[in-house]
Amino acid sequence: MAIPRPESGILNRLYANLFGSSGRFVSLDVPEKILKRLYTYGSITNTDEGLQFEVKNRLQDAEFAGVNRLAINGEEISEDRVRLETVDESVHRLDEVDGENPLSFPVGRTLYVIVEGMELPTGDHTLDIEFVAHPFGDLSLSIADTIRDEEEIPSIPRRDDNNFTEEAIQDRHEFLEETTNVDLEHIPHYSVDPEEDLEGNIENFIGVAQMPIGLAGPLKVNGEHADGEFPIPLATTEGTLVASYSRGMKAINLSGGAKTTVTDDKMNRAPVFVFEDARVARDFREWVFDHYDTIKEKAEETSSVAELVEIEDYMTNNYAFLRFGYKTGDAAGMNMVGKATFAACNWILSEFPGYVENFYLDGNFSTDKKASKVNDLMTRGKRVTAEVTLPEEVLVHHLGADPESIHHHGKVGTLGSFFAGNTTNGAHPANGLASLFIATGQDEANVAESHAAMVNTTLLDDNSLHVSVTIPSLIVATYGGGTGLPTQNEGLEILDCDGPGNVNKFAEIAAGVVLAGELSLASAISASDWVTSHEELGRNR
């Protein structure tokens, strides 16, 4: 017998949960693939007090209202043998938790489940759990997990109470000496206070990499946010790099400075929703757009800074990729937008009247730390342009190349980049960005996205040359992450860019640095000075 589908409202949602979008009966309110994410795989272990495993809420805020059945390897476990512990060390007996006395289970909370008096051998085991959670109702899942012989797995020494003490650090130094026969001489010398400065930036700390920092410039910037002459700290081990960038900066200064413009600002997270077919995915997309205002509200509740500005949709097969775009203030914002998007998606999953077969917070469409065409078109981070018009005499007498040759090389280089499948037609945008990033505490892996610059040259009637660089996905910060570390913060202080309110200023300076590097290397190649410069200044001499 066919059961007619209600048109709207809670009955429609109930129908969808019971029968799915096609009307076929399904047994779970929450898809099993999503529900299994409550369990932390690899967490099952024997302890002095019994068998332990972890459950973490990765879905949405809920209340845990008791277990109807718990079986391990088919053996039924009575409630009075089980206790629950939270990360704040509060303890709850399982037989004391029920619908009238539920346990708060917000997103991100981990519950440690301890079955007292039970010990299992190493190998594979199965857990069957039937439990109640509001607002989901009765749920069940079956898990297969493995207990491994931890003594056979090498591990780095760490201390759970405080892993940044001198004793914890010394443990790791001794471990290295014993396992590698390396007696550390340089790495352990640092000026930071590990306990005060490093938590949240590094794990299993052993010391620092002492990267040389050189000073390039100064660089004259005529921007809307950066206006003045800035000495540029560059951390690198490549001989000629600082000298080359200084040469380009001098050419810019002789031409009046770099004009810089931030044209867009948007950090993204792109979840993907999986459906039975493309038609349901399309209907889901329309529902999301109809509820944009509420989704925006749910996302922005997670942060005082994040501002959702748009949701882009990209549909393929039975998948709906939604690219959430945010303004993130002075932070690069990847974690911020992840948290905001997670909250928004939890609301979507709980309220959408159809059936979502699966969901991932990121389907690799955010292109985190990967160059991509969607970034070129739609922006990720800051989209910023730096440009300068260089008189013929500056090009000839300072850079040693005539305007026409640089312009022609630019056309040839663009064709070569297209032919090779490059992500930029620039000569080496990554060089200056990587050096600047390391010196100022940026996430250095973001160079993978940020380097995808687009360079253009225009030969003018007076034989001057207009050169511009657009970086469509410059991911930078002046607050949060590594920017607060003492050494890196000093790098930002040199640029007068430390702290809130300076991210666009820093973005304009960074674009000017890239422009300087493009001018210098393009001129060296055009004038056949590239190899001789490395022979003179580099380590290969």
From TrEMBL:
Record keyword Glycosyltransferase present: no
Keyword field: NADP, Oxidoreductase
Keyword rRNA-binding listed: no
Catalysed reaction, written as an equation: (R)-mevalonate + 2 NADP(+) + CoA = (3S)-3-hydroxy-3-methylglutaryl-CoA + 2 NADPH + 2 H(+)
The record's section on SUPFAM superfamilies has: NAD-binding domain of HMG-CoA reductase, Substrate-binding domain of HMG-CoA reductase
Classify the source by domain of life: Archaea
Q: Recorded GO terms, molecular function?
A: hydroxymethylglutaryl-CoA reductase (NADPH) activity
Q: What is its EC number?
A: 1.1.1.34
A Pfam family found in this protein is HMG-CoA_red_N
Q: Which residues form the Hydroxymethylglutaryl-CoA reductase-like domain?
A: 34-148
> Which of the seven top EC classes does this enzyme belong to?
oxidoreductase
Q: Which family is annotated?
A: Belongs to the HMG-CoA reductase family.
Protein name (Swiss-Prot/TrEMBL) = hydroxymethylglutaryl-CoA reductase (NADPH)
